[in-house]
Design goal:
By secondary structure, this protein is an alpha/beta fold. The chain has 16 helices and 21 strands. The protein has a 7-stranded mixed sheet. Helix 1 packs across helix 16 and helix 2 crosses helix 16. The two termini are 33 Å apart. It binds flavin-adenine dinucleotide.
């Protein structure tokens, strides 16, 4: 008996070996596709990567993942990484925000909210004014800062939103788009008017979907050996020969099959595929020639702000730091006029980040707020942050371990006007069937959102078109 011949599976090119491209490649390989992944650097993972040395575990970019997207659990499960997964330590529950040079607990309960010195009495009353708002549909987008000011008042912007946005986007609330940077809040205003009532309704819906029980809060996770585990596990599932490192993709065009031209630093190469998945950052997208005429339809993405960030990992002997470091870390509002965007208490966040008797801090510097500071040398940065660390945390003496990671274009800013970039991406896909675009420029900036983006890209390549 002969087995009927299987139709040959399409061959897929994947541009960009960050977490989005790797996830797409992994999914397609699991479904029997032949893939080729092109990455311009000599390592996979893009912004994600960890280093283990002398008992320290350093995250180069992202430090923790919030289990807010089902895609994260799905990928962890399908890679069999459950036994390496770790959750944040109980010590990481508290979050601090700096006000008048002091670390104030971010209130986690109504009682805590009334007691916190983070907001004035007037500021607290103003926050509750939000419950009286009626649903509205705005004719145009507004800045996130203005949106939150209208709902909760200026103090909430200065000491709630501003530090939060620095922590997530390294961004400026006055520039970020309310509609695109925080679409859930935008939708809540349309459906409920009040963000507080919208949040209450969302919590109620979650409880109902969980059989009337309050569902557990999404956990903050990493892996015993850091987030590199995710990158390594994804890469290990790709067959030999499917990854091309040191390959800068310059152009893609179809005629009728897709051609991908890439450069290895000396020579140009062209390969042929059935579909192309593009998981490049905004800078890469803006320089990509698409189509037989060599046009660059996404050139406008060069205008999308993508500020630099320096991540400074500092190790100290325990006795060098007076603060108990009993929290996740501290976020610094712009009004405090300090050089840091935030300070993560890395060794309180996850186990195994510092040798016995030591603690580790990760200081984030730069972003839209102070891009010049991010570009400083390691010594300059140390000199910049040392007085502030002494003030805020009682840090005494020089660090015993330093690692500096510089991200020249760290995080794309979904600023006002972002809609036109989305429209350009959509138009490019429409004009070039078989080309699909995803990743942090389009689908959300967190790693879990990029995992979802990778899964979605694979799904598009897997459907007949
Ligand atoms: C300092 C920092 C801290 C962060 N903290 C967190 C956090 O705590 N939690 C969280 O969830 N997220 C965090 N993020 C965000 C998150 O890490 C990123 O948004 C996400 O990893 C982006 O993944 P990506 O695959 O879409 O893009 P990238 O990681 O940018 O990958 C794109 C890849 O494409 C390659 N490339 C570019 N151009 C070309 C070309 N022409 N040809 C071939 N290859 C090309 C690049 O070299 C890169 O490897 C942080 C990011 C940074 C920088």
């Amino acid at each position: 008996m002969t087995t009927p011949a299987q139709p040959a599976r399409a061959t897929i090119a994947i541009l960009g070996g960050g977490i989005t491209g790797l996830t797409a490649a992994f999914r397609l390989v699991s479904r029997g596709y032949s893939v080729r992944l092109f990455e311009q650097t000599r390592r996979l993972g893009g912004s994600v990567g960890s280093e283990c040395t002398e008992g320290w575990l350093i995250e180069r970019g992202p430090n923790s993942l919030l289990e807010s997207e089902p895609a994260l659990a799905e990928i962890v499960q399908s890679l069999g990484l459950q036994d390496q997964l770790i959750t944040s330590l109980p010590t990481a529950k508290k979050r601090f925000i700096v006000r008048r040079g002091q670390l104030c607990d971010l209130p986690m309960s109504p009682g805590g909210f009334f007691k916190t010195p983070l907001f004035s009495f007037r500021g607290k009353l103003r926050l509750f004014g939000d419950v009286f708002r009626r649903p509205r549909t705005r004719p145009t987008d507004i800045s996130l800062g203005e949106f939150i000011r209208q709902h909760f008042g200026q103090e909430a912007v200065d000491y709630g939103l501003n530090p939060f946005v620095s922590g997530v986007y390294a961004g400026d609330p006055g520039k970020l788009s309310a509609q695109y940077a925080f679409p859930k809040l935008w939708a809540m205003e349309q459906s409920h008017g009040s963000i507080l009532r919208g949040m209450g309704a969302a919590a109620k819906a979650r409880r109902a979907a969980n059989g009337g029980q309050r569902p557990p809060r999404p956990r903050l996770i990493s892996f015993t050996r850091g987030l590199q585990t995710l990158v390594d596990a994804l890469a290990a599932r790709l067959p030999e020969g499917s990854v091309q490192l040191g390959a800068r993709v310059e152009a893609v065009w179809s005629g009728p099959r897709w051609q991908v031209r890439w450069h290895d630093g000396q020579t140009s190469h062209t390969e042929v595929f059935d579909k192309v998945l593009c998981a490049l950052p905004s800078g890469g997208l803006s320089q990509l020639a698409v189509g037989a005429d060599g046009a660059m339809p996404l050139a406008g993405l060069a205008q999308l702000e993508n500020p630099p960030v320096s991540s400074l990992f500092l190790g100290f002997r325990r006795e060098q730091v007076r603060h108990p470091l009993d929290g996740f870390g501290a976020l610094i509002p712009a009004l405090e006029r300090r050089p840091e965007l935030g300070i993560l208490f890395s060794s309180s966040l996850f186990a195994g980040r510092a040798p016995e008797g030591h603690v580790a801090l990760t200081v984030m510097v730069g972003g839209v707020r102070q891009p010049v500071l991010a570009r400083q040398s390691t010594d300059e940065l140390l000199a910049t942050v040392t007085p502030s660390l002494r003030d805020l945390l009682g840090v005494n003496g020089a660090p015993v371990f330093v690692r500096h990671n510089f991200w020249p274009a760290a995080i794309p800013q979904y600023n006002l006007g972002y809609g036109r970039h989305l429209a350009a991406i959509e138009a490019c896909e429409r004009a070039h069937p078989g080309l699909f675009i995803g990743g942090n420029t389009r689908d959300g900036i967190s790693v879990p959102q990029c995992l979802r983006a990778g899964i979605n890209l694979a799904g598009k390549a897997d459907s007949p078109s």
